[in-house]
Amino acid sequence: MNYPPITGVHLNLTHRCNLACRYCYVSQEALDMPFQVAKDSADFLARNSIISGVNPSICFFGGEPLLRYDDIIVPLVAYINKTHPNRNFKFTITTNGTLLTDDKIEFFKLHNFGILTSIDGCAETQNYNRPFHNGEGSHAIVEKHIKTLLAAGFTPTFRATVIPATCQFTYKNYLYAIELGYKSFFAITNAFEDWDSEHQEIFEQEMIKIANHYIDYWKVNKKAPMRLSMLEKVIIVQLKNAKTATPQRADSSAQAHCGLGQRAHAAISPAGDIYGCQEMTSNEGSESIFYIGNIYDGTDDKLRERLADLYNATPNRGYTDCNLCEANIFCNGGCVANNYLISGKLNVAPIGRCFYQKVLNRTALRIIEGLRDTPEFAQSFTKTVKRPTKNNASIKPPMNGCSVCNTCQVCDTCQNGDSKEDLQ
Question: Which CATH architecture describes the domain 8-416?
Answer without folding.
Answer: Alpha-Beta Barrel (3.20)
